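yo

u said u wanted the structure for the complex thing, so here. seqs first:
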Amino acid sequence: MIRLRDLPHDAHFRRGARDMLPFGPGLAAWGLVTGVAMTQSGLGVGLSLLMTFTVYAGSAQLASLPLIASGAPMWVIWASAFCVNLRFAIFSSHWRVHLGHLPRRRRVVLGYLLADLNLLVFQKQWQGEGHQTGQARYAAGGAATVWIIWQATSVAGILLSSMVPLEWGLGFAGTLSMLGMAYSMLSERTAWVAAIVSGAAAVAAFSLPLKLNILVAIAAAVAATLVMNQAGKALQAMRPKTPR
Amino acid sequence: MSGAMPQWAWAALTILGLAAVTAISRNVFLWSRRELRFPEPLQRALQMAPLAAIVAITAPEIFLSQGHLIETWRDARLFAAVTATAAYAWRPGVLGPLVAGLAVYLPLRLALGW
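structre next:
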């Protein structure tokens, strides 16, 4: 079992760290924007720093900012963030194949540090392979690079934007980022339905207390996609079979 | 805001809870040594939840002001959202639309007060 302080000299760790560098500029811009959005939503420097160093999940951070600003109940904020983070749950079942052999403490610490980009690069490197020696160290190297770039730029965004007056409304940068994120998730027809149902429900149910409109909208969208999938299957079954 | 707790303490507690949400969601299938599987139907049902959550939070931020639909077209947010949408259609990505949207948003807001 490798010791933590030997990691920087490990070949797998270094390769994992290096393979992440091409993504540095995009990661940096993203960290900067998240830093700006945090302070400009009214969190202030201290709480923004606390958020970047503990939460460490860009999209969940951005999503929770308007909810925190409007004083939504904690459990609604946590539930919404969990929905945004659901992809990580699915990712963790992929990581399990490669990291399952580690002792629990290392598993959990590494798991906490591994974001979307890490899985993407990892899977490209170890295409379809099962467990191999060096994979955990490779993953740790990637995690280190992402963590350093993200935190450095996020802190820069927090400190730089703390000089901008809140009246500028620069917090809207967070909303615009989420808009772009949402567009990039609009892959198939079901996604369009989910987005339209969710957006309409969130606006229509806005007057619900406790910001429950968010959870109502998510439930409505999930229900709508389920109904649509079932209806699609039923239609498929009725149609005469033609090869496509 | 909740009761006697000072606002920063409330926010700090919320943030620490969010950190737990990150830790938990990234470890759902790493925590246990036993092999667990994500049930296929559940996975399919929840596939759209992240998108739904993001849209549910974003839409009111763009279309509502003080809890009501925007009544004037002179709102910098609308123009910024339209610009960001056009920018995305032109070249998909997250940063391009963001920069384009802000380039419209800030002048409208700071110079015209929209």
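Residues 178 and 184 of chain A are 10 Å apart (CA to CA). Chain A has a mean pLDDT of 91.
cya
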